[in-house]
Design the sequence.
């Protein structure tokens, strides 16, 4: 049998290879074709060695080998191939070991390459984020954020509006506002303040500021330095220190000229009253929050202006940014109020009344001077116990419009006007008048003094101020007519004067009058009014029966010069002009030949009426005495009405004695003050008596 190992070479195309003739296991690279193994020189089994061996044995190239030689060669090839495989495996093992050693990193080792890559990517992401955010801020939120930033650094301060002035009829200021300052320091700003003196030396800080400020503020330099110096860091402190309060503009201007950073003003308006105590309760007083009394209170809306505002940008320490935005809405000053008072007449009336109160031992009194045609009040005096304590300006009490009393005989002119218009009586109608008179319902009235029976005309009843005669006249009038005329002349209704607390008086409806009151109202009892109401009755008669309302405000003038006049001078005809003229002429007899002779004025014809009545005392009982005189001058062309009311006089009680002298003094001064010329003829009077009494 043939040994299988000695088989000849397998034919080409054979799919199996003898174990001894396997090709070396050579790894190919991807994409590389079959590799031919080229035997290396000097390596057994290589082609070059085999060729040499063949030549040495005498073989020619191309000659085949013997079977024994072939097997030997195959064994050599197999052995060499195994060695190569082992060498290749060794090389592979060495490579893996190198990789393992390379991958085995020490603790804390950082791969620099990876770190750079990571950081580069992170930076790119961060820049991308910032870019997107910047685009969002600039393009989407830009305007909103800019507005918010501006609002955070913008400060708004109030610009206080100046309160309007009060000016009397002659242009004299009676109330005005003046700018005043509180000066304070910011200790933090002062600590950083630097400046250069005239010698070009750098100065600054709180001590140098104290040196500059001391002579201006009138404060010791050492004391001022303490106020300006910021305490130690660990101490609590208020960085704003008040230095001086309520100083004039001149002082602040001097401080401002020093240009010290950290010194600031606090501006406010202070009310001053050049007229002092004169008319103080009428003018009133204003505080920080507005009017508190008098006209300052009642006209507060007119006098109060509209505050303005200033918006500006400020730095971190509160300093104004010079180039920043500044928005200013100017303040609008309050309106100027031109009042009707003549402060000279006001002062004179106050002095005249004060002297008479002392002379009569009276507790209080009122004087009113009023223009007949316009109802402008030229003087409004209320002398009361608190006036002496100088508190009246703060309380604003004006007794002339707040206190009520029975007008007494001064209201008899209303009865006369009603009789002239509602009966057949005339000023010369004749009456027989006793000092006592009993009505049909059994009510007995008497005159103030006992006297024999008198033969008096209607004018004479008024001249003698006869209660019994007035009751006789009033009996011809219904109760409704009596009530209507009292109301028509203003009793029971406020005058509307521009002062708070006015009383409307007391006037019950006629259905509530008892058997006595229905007659008592004819001579001013059983009802009550204030001094201003009573004064206006006389002004209406003197103005030909045309009624207007007494007032203190002539006009208001706004900041632009627009004038708004008072409408209270508008008139209403409440009685016939002839009736008014007749009553005025009857009143002239009171002064010329009646109970009011004390009210006469040299060179002027005066018409007036005395009054003596009762008022409620502190307990509410009608135990207080009221003496009065109200008159008009000149009779020929009435210009002024003056009323004088004195309460609780001790030396005398009758108006002709207590009040008439004050009337004469104040009226004479007022006529001369206003340049009203005297008259050179006697008044035309109605007869006051008839029959045998006419000869007296």
Sequence:
């Amino acid at each position: 049998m043939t040994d299988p190992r000695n088989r000849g070479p397998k034919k080409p195309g054979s799919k199996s290879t003898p174990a001894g003739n396997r090709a070396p296991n050579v790894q190919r690279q991807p994409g590389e074709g079959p590799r031919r193994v080229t035997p290396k020189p000097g390596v057994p089994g290589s082609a070059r060695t085999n060729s040499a061996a063949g030549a040495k044995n005498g073989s020619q190239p191309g000659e085949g080998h013997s079977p024994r030689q072939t097997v030997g060669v195959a064994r050599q090839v197999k052995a060499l191939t195994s060695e190569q495989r082992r060498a290749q495996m060794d090389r592979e093992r060495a490579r893996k070991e190198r990789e393992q050693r390379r991958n085995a990193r020490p603790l804390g080792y950082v791969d620099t390459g990876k770190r750079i890559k990571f950081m580069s990517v992170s930076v790119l992401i961060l820049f991308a984020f910032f870019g997107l955010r910047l685009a969002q801020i600039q393009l989407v939120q830009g305007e909103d954020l800019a507005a918010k930033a501006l609002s955070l650094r913008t400060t708004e301060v109030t610009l206080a509006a100046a309160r309007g002035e009060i000016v009397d009829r002659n242009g004299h200021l009676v109330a005005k506002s003046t700018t005043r300052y509180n000066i304070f320091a910011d200790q933090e700003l002062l600590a950083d303040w630097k400046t250069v003196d005239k010698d070009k030396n750098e100065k600054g800080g709180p001590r140098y500021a104290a040196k500059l400020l001391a002579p201006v503020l009138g404060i010791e330099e050492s004391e001022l330095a303490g106020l300006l110096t910021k305490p130690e860091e660990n101490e609590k402190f208020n960085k704003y220190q008040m230095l001086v309060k309520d100083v004039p503009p001149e002082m602040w201007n001097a401080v401002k000229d020093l240009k010290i950073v950290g010194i600031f003003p606090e501006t406010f308006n202070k009310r001053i009253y050049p007229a002092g105590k004169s008319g103080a309760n009428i003018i009133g007083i204003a505080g920080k929050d507005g009017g508190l009394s008098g006209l300052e209170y009642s006209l507060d809306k007119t006098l109060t202006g509209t505050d303005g505002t200033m918006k500006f940008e400020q730095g971190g320490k509160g300093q104004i940014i010079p180039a920043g935005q500044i928005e200013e809405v100017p303040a609008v000053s309050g309106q100027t109020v031109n009042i009707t008072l003549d402060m000279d007449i006001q002062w004179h009336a106050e002095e005249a009344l004060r002297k008479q109160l002392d002379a009569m031992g009276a507790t209080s009194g009122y004087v009113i001077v009023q223009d007949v045609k316009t109802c402008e009040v030229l003087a409004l005096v209320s002398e009361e116990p608190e006036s002496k304590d100088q508190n009246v300006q703060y309380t604003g009490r004006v007794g002339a419009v707040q206190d009520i009393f029975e007008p007494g005989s001064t209201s008899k002119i209303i009865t006369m006007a009603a009789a002239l218009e509602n009966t057949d009586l005339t000023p010369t109608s004749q009456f027989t008048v006793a000092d006592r008179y009993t009505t049909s319902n059994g009510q007995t009235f008497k005159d103030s003094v006992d006297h024999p029976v008198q033969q008096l005309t209607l004018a004479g009843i008024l001249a003698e101020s006869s209660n019994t005669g007035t009751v006789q006249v009033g009996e011809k009038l219904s109760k409704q007519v009596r009530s209507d005329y009292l109301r028509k002349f203003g009793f029971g209704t406020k005058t509307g004067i521009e002062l708070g607390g006015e009383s409307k008086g007391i006037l019950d409806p006629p259905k509530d009058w008892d058997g006595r009151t229905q007659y008592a109202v004819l001579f001013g009892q059983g009802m009550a009014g204030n001094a201003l109401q009573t004064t206006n009755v006389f002004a209406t008669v003197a103005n030909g029966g045309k009624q207007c309302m007494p007032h203190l405000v002539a006009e208001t003038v706004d900041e632009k010069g627009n004038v708004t006049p008072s409408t209270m001078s508008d008139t209403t005809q409440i009685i016939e002009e002839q009736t008014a003229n007749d009553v005025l002429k009857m009143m002239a007899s009171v002064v010329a030949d009646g109970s009011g002779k004390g009210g006469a004025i040299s060179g002027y014809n005066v018409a007036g009426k005395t009054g003596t009545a009762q008022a409620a005392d502190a307990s509410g009982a009608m135990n207080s005495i009221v003496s009065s005189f109200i008159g008009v001058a000149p009779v020929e062309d009435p210009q002024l009405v003056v009323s004088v009311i004195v309460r609780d006089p001790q030396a005398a009680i009758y108006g002709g004695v207590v009040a008439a002298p004050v009337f004469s003094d104040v009226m004479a001064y007022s006529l001369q003050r206003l340049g009203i010329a005297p008259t050179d003829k006697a008044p035309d009077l109605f007869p006051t008596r008839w029959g045998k009494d006419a000869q007296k």
Notes: Residues 67-103 form the longest helix (37 residues). The radius of gyration is 60 Å. The first strand starts at residue 154 and ends at 159.
